[in-house]
Amino acid sequence: MSDGKGTTAMQADIVFTRGTIRTGAADGPTPDALAVTDGRISALGARALDARGSDTVVVDLQGGALLPAFGDGHAHPVMGGLGLLGAPVRECTSVEEIVEAVRDWADRHPEAEWITGDGFDAWLAPGGRFDAHWLDRAVPDRPVVLRTMDHHTAWVNSEALRRAGFSAGTPDPDGGEIVRRKDSAEPLGTLREFAAVLPVLDLVPRPSHDAQVDALRATAARFAASGVTWVQDAWVEPHHADVWITAATSGPGLPIRADLGFFLGPEHWRERVGRLAAERERVEGAAPGLLTAHTVKFFADGVIESGTAALLEPYTDCPHSHGIANWTPTELADAVTAIDALGLQPHIHALGDGGVRVALDAVEAAAAANGPRDRRPVIAHAQLIHPADLPRFAELGVIANLQPLWAQPDRLMTDLILPKIGPKRGARQYQVAALLASGARIAFGSDWPVTDHEPLRGIATAVTRQTPEGFPDGGWLPQERIDTATALAAYSAGCAYQAFEEEEWGVLRPGMRADLVHLAADPVETAPRDLARLPVLGTWLAGRRTHDSGTPETVSATRR
User: Fold this and answer.
1) Of 480, 381, 383, 481, which Cα lies nearest the Cα of 429?
2) What is the DSSP string of 35-93?
3) In a 10 Å sphere around its CB, with 0-12 CB exposed, 13-18 middle and 19+ buried, how is residue 340 labelled?
């Protein structure tokens, strides 16, 4: 096949045509075709069409759009996949529905020593206070532990409290709260933050390695079906790394790439940090090209809806409380400095303005101690930022990893969050546009299974700042709305930058990996209210198709 210049052009493996090609470049043209050869983009426009040969697969976009595939800069694939195996409480809309779902699951699984469930809404009980006695009516003789959708609160029955040794005389652990009955010191059945939740969860038998691998594979398929090809696993315990390695290197492999963020807590962190470099080498050596492990996850604080996020000023509904800081400022700074010295990337959960400040201070301390380098620290969630701290994201090179689906006035916001922080602080939540205007880098993530993993739902919310029902008119805190192209970039190029892979994926140009998503229509030209329902027709990881909606879109080149 001649390229018209007297030389022989390489035949493409795949050519995409008859649709809109959104390259992700800020001011570039919109080509009408894209070619893939050996897993990478080899040509755009007319050159792509000329690269068709007898063996080329031609994908008819059918008037839809081809875009850079999405990333997810903060999710929990293994934990989330396992959470789907228990009682189906995620879609329940009342306490009564949850109790019945638990009763039914327990009746159908008499062999289960523990009954677990994951993902119910924290606002279903007044003040987020869930009573063990409600679960006792369904299951009195076996322990039950259910986790709210934010994973920072657990609702347990009396048998679970008994097995964990929680009683009126049990003090609250450092960094956690055993919620008490109003008329006594007896535990109510609601446990807040990991220090209080883990003593119960640690008693639950761990699923087998094979069960965890199966759960991860099911999760990875979900992400691929939503157009995602890269995920940041934002909480990896050592045994999770084995699950990722097995899934990536056996059987069908994985339809996504991932970076594993090893969890580092305040207990024994100095001993743990010495093993991180070897764990990274083990992961990356086992599955090169699919798995990296350059991230370390920290929790600076909790969540506002539980009153555990660290605030600079007291909670409106609890004037004696500033929330819970999981680390002292000095210890967090020391730990971040230590992992930064190893060339690892800190990924710090911080929601309250106090937590965000401590996280920024830790990054600043690491930079001062270790000197200049391309460190790309991440602060995840950044729900509430003090005005004095907002410009520090850009100044310190901190990536704000935001969950756009949270930026709406849903029941969690109106019933639990706003009453705790009041209108003044409530009016500066999820400052996406303000961070961008300051020069900060942003990347989007879902925090799945906390909220939906589908990027298009998050993009719709970032653009409209409305609930799915279209409330309120004009959007909630409308000054923080962004346009569709910017939201798409936060889920693609923004995630690629977070992954240190912006030269590999995130935009469509020759030489980049062919990580692609085919949407049924051009999202930039789609009404914002319709973005969440835009079908994903196909996903490709380095030119390998990982999701097919079943639409008859592919033909051989000989039929062009």
Assistant:
1) 383
2) EEETTEEEEETHHHHHT--TTPEEEE-TT-EEEEPEEEEEE-HHHHHHHTTSB--TT--
3) buried
Give the C-alpha distances (Å, rounded to integers) separating 68 from 1, 36, 308. 28, 13, 37
Amino acid at 133: H
pTM to 2 decimal places: 0.91
C-alpha distance across the termini of the chain, in Å: 16
* Complete DSSP assignment for 419-461: HHHHHHHHTTBS-HHHHHHTT-EEEE---TTSS---HHHHHHH
User: Which residues, listed in sequence order, are joined to residue 65 by a DSSP beta bridge?
Assistant: 20, 519
Tokens of 500: 């240190």
How far apart CA 411 and CA 465 sit, in angstroms, is 14
Beta bridge partners of 17: 33, 60
Paired tokens of 385: 């930022």
Segments of the chain with pLDDT less than 50: 1-8, 556-560
Tokens of 77: 């694939």
For residue 341, give every residue at least 6 positions away whose Cβ sits within 8 Å of its Cβ, in sequence order, or none: 366, 369, 370
Per the document, the length of the chain is: 560
- In tens, the pLDDT along 510-557 reads 999 999 999 999 999 999 999 999 999 999 999 999 999 876 555 544
* Cβ density class 73-98: b for 16+ within 10 Å, e for less: bbbbbbbbbbbbebbbbbebeebeeb
Tokens of 334: 């020391």
